[in-house]
Design brief:
It is built from three helices and eight strands, in the order E-E-E-E-H-H-E-E-E-H-E. By secondary structure, the chain is α+β, with helices and mostly antiparallel strands. It has one domain (2-142): Bifunctional nuclease domain. Strands 1, 2, 3, 4, 5, 6, 7 and 8 form an eight-stranded mixed sheet that branches. It is globular.
Length: 145
């Protein structure tokens, strides 16, 4: 577990997770991403993402690259060429039912934290040479979608 002040008045406790699946159940119009804790009690957080985002995540997890770079591949390449690494992705909270995330970057100018969609952060984590960790605020495991 790690703790981080995510701009809130109090500290959040985060759990390390990994993507265990990206699935589409037809005729759903979204993909379902499942993250599982890497240590007991092995809780799962599932949330919907767009079909394109789900396909991008699945491709990143497989290490697939197309003949022409996707937006995520391009962004990961630009980050790498400018010396910026993805340190971690943190899923921090829900606002009006929407899962909020931030990506933690380290580069020549120091550390930057940028708000992002969970799906974009996950794809960028998997487009690194070494997959960056995905941290989930402990309280999100108790929330209902």
């Amino acid at each position: 577990m790690t703790e981080s002040d995510s701009g809130a008045d109090s500290f959040l406790t985060f759990r390390v997770t990994e993507v265990v699946s990206v699935t589409v159940n037809l005729p759903d119009t979204h993909a379902l991403v499942q993250l599982s804790e890497t240590e007991a009690p092995y809780r799962v957080l599932a949330f919907p993402v767009g079909l394109a985002e789900g396909a991008a995540l699945a491709a990143a997890m497989e290490g697939s690259v197309g003949a022409r770079p996707t937006t995520h591949e391009l962004f990961a390449e630009v980050l790498g060429r400018t010396g910026v690494e993805v340190i971690a992705l943190r899923l921090t909270r829900r606002e009006a039912g929407v899962l909020c995330a931030e990506i933690d970057l380290m580069g020549p100018r120091g550390r930057e934290i940028v708000e992002c969609r969970p799906s974009d952060g996950l794809v960028l984590c998997h487009r690194q040479m070494v997959t960056a960790p995905v941290l989930v605020a402990d309280e999100l495991f108790d929330d209902e979608i």
